[in-house]
Amino acid sequence: MVKIERTGWLMDVYTRPQGELVCWLLSEDGQRWLLPFDFPATFYAAGNPGVLRQAWRFLQGRGVRCSRQVRHDLFQGERVVLAVTVDLPGRLPETCRRLAQAFPALDYYDADLPLSVRFVSRTQLPLLGRCRFETDGQRLLDVQPLESAWEMQPSLPPLRVMEIECDADPALHPPQAVTVRCGKRCYRFTLQPLRALLVNLQALLSMYDPDVILTRYGDTWLFPFLSEQAASLNPNRDERMQVEFRRERSLFAYGQVLYRGAQALLFGRWHIDRCNAALFAEIGLSGALEMARVTGLGVQEVVRKSPGAGITAMQMQTALRDGVLVPAVKQQAEASRTLDSLIRYDRGGMVYQPLVGVHRHVAELDFASMYPAIMVRYNISPETLNRNDAPAGLIPRTLQPLLVKRLALKHCLHTLDRRDSRVNDLKARQTALKWLLVVCFGYLGYKNARFGRVESHEAVTAISRELLLQAKESAEEMGFSVLHMYVDSLFVKREGAEGEADFLPLVEQIQQQTGIGVSLEGVYRWVVFLPARRDRRIPVANRYFGVFEDGTLKYRGIALRRHDTCPYVAHTQLEILGCLAQADDPRERWGEAWALVQQRVRSLQRRQAAVESLQMAVKLSRDPQAFRRPSAAAQAARQLQAQGLAVRAGMRLFFWFTRRGVSVTPPSAAEVDWDRYARLVLQAAAEILDLLQPAYEVRQLHLPVCR
Amino acid sequence: MLLPSVSGGLCVVVGERPSMGDTATRLLVELALRGTVLVMDGGNRLQAYPLARALRQRTTRIHLLSQRVLVRRAFTAYQMLALLESAPGAASPLVIVDPLATFYDETLAPAPARWLAQRCLQEVERLKQAAPVFILLGRCPSPERRFLHDMVCQKADTLFFEAEESSGAVQPPLF
Fold this sequence. Notes:
The structure holds two protein chains of two kinds.
Chain A lengths: L3 E12 L5 E7 L4 E6 L3 E6 L2 H11 L5 E9 L3 E10 L5 H11 L4 E3 L5 H9 L6 E6 L4 E6 L15 E6 L10 E6 L2 E6 L3 H15 L3 E4 L2 H12 L14 E3 L2 E5 L2 E5 L2 E3 L4 E4 L6 H16 L3 H6 L2 H15 L15 E2 H7 L5 E2 L4 E11 L2 H8 L16 H22 L7 H23 L8 H24 L3 E6 L2 E5 L6 H15 L3 E14 L7 E10 L4 E4 L10 H14 L9 H16 L10 E4 L12 H11 L9 E7 L2 E3 L10 H16 L18
Parallel strand pairs in A: 10-13, 13-18
Antiparallel strand pairs in A: 1-2, 1-8, 2-3, 4-6, 4-7, 5-6, 8-9, 10-11, 11-12, 14-17, 15-16, 20-22, 21-23, 21-24, 22-23, 24-25, 25-26, 27-28, 28-29
Chain B lengths: L9 E6 L4 H15 L2 E5 L6 H11 L3 H7 E5 L3 H10 L7 E4 L12 H19 L4 E6 L7 H10 L2 E4 L14
Parallel strand pairs in B: 1-5, 1-6, 2-3, 2-4, 4-5
Helix pairs in contact in B: 1-2, 4-5, 5-6
């Protein structure tokens, strides 16, 4: 048997239906390898010794190896456990499920770890990491890492990307054709005759042999369609595998109802549906690869899951590396506390309401990754709670390299010219890491987080409030006025301080005092803090717009930022801001801005706006049958259902306001409710201009809408 | 109020889930005025500020009384069991607010949910020997998990049903 040694990249791991693990590797010579690898996997059970003995007997003759071991539980310390090892890792979930069904009273560990996380932590080889591997052509014999996940400039595998797009949104119209792009070539195939499409698609897959298939509606339409119409067409590189379909679902997370469309996963290559990949639009392929590299989750998983799943996977890796058991379910309950203590400590971040109005030469200072930095610096982890002398906890150990890498990437970005070809790639990678850091705090308090604990969560916010107060005191001691504070940022100004250099001593002072990195987001030429819509005397946190010294706009909490604002209204608000940004004081340009609004409204009254720019969007907060009032969302959902489409909570629907209500298909100009759009424009304009009106000209920003 | 009607054992109050916070507040105020009370919150229903305000309406000794209300929260069904298992059989009454909220989670299969509910009820049996136990139970949102609701009601020594809110005209669903 001839042994072959190659260097290359580990692309992914998965199991075949028989349970064996397969590694997808790409060697430097361009060859793609799908090699089975011997990879026994172990899970553990702990609990009453008598029950453990019964469990041992239960497992006899089921093709597993059992042993008695002592392992470390993060909360309970050393525990005697029953270690159950299966030679085929794909069989582990079923074995564990049967055991848990028979012995529900036992505690289970390492029972539901993603396979790639197990693989990465045991081999120390990150996904997408460079490696040296040995094979006999049939199986993978050995694999050695040549790179770590924390490499600043990791080597990139030469990926072949194929893009497939259909000509219509299948939720609205049945597609008639698909466009396939491979490298510089572009092909267009009509769906009928179907056989021609299938033959061409199969030929392209064989000829081009892509590593990544990027689609639009591939999850929800293309692959289900292909599977239904042509079972013989297998888009996997691994011919022994079929496309894995996962059903759609609605879930409640991050305080809102989210919709996850059905998924179609491939083996031996990746499928990414741009329309069903939460972060892909923002981080692109570079960001997705970076996320897979540091989290240990496969690329197809990482683009479809929330960053929280990535953070959990990273914590699992840390636990496996350090010999800590990963519990299958979280069991640590909150300690008893008085009502008094609950009120005092169960709070969020500090908010200092803004001083409503126009302010000039204002600096915005941000704590860099404040919550994760607190977790690392103050060693906040579930097992280190109330222990001053504790060694670095599991959470800080997980976050430390992530923080360091993101800061290094950011630093690198700052040193590069904006036109540098590396900028986009670095931006995508640092954004991917940012998302992981953003969610890591929430996961401390998340109910299903294996290593979460609500008291740790509260400790982080308590420290953040204290740090923000320290920052405020520092600013005031140096003669600055604090206009607004919002969780991890503060807005300050001082008479005579106009340029960045005037604020840098304050940045340094706060950094020194708090031990957390602070960045100067910028100095606003002017910034406007807006009041509440209902009562102009009441300030609202994090609702403002302003222009930096270099002319860049920044806005929060206005229609322009909302996902349900139609492009025409958003564009109007942006134009108003652009107009105001030309002045040293926005009040100077109020007249011009108001004229602009009138012109935009007149365009609507004359029906001159493109219908596409009037498309509204709404996210369904509940299932259609749960609606009691005929809101726009309810009407849109009903129309789509009438067309035979499945509508579920969390889905994003698009519609137009028409004279008869709403329409989910583009209406004709005669049908559009132009008055309604004019009112929306006026509302959006009023949001910005109301506060800036000259005192002698105060009036309601409501035009008589007429033709 | 239900306190005069309850002599001891397990008292279950079944009501609408949105109004459970108010019911818990009223009950806890009465109990806190009499002594220490333990609260286990299974659905994050306990409203700390309204409870403090309600206490203040009844007494000026707000700090003393807010020390008497001891709270523990469970965010998963497993945590609810852990809370009950770790609770000593104290002489103070125990109020369990919406204990099944996390048992309706779709990530928890019916079989483990049933087992966990059984174990929880065994613990409640133990705890009610020492002091009265009040369970404020929300109406079951899904028919498939109705058995959990029935399991708790069957264990009750005293069972109250809060009247369902109904207005004169009930608007039917749109479609």
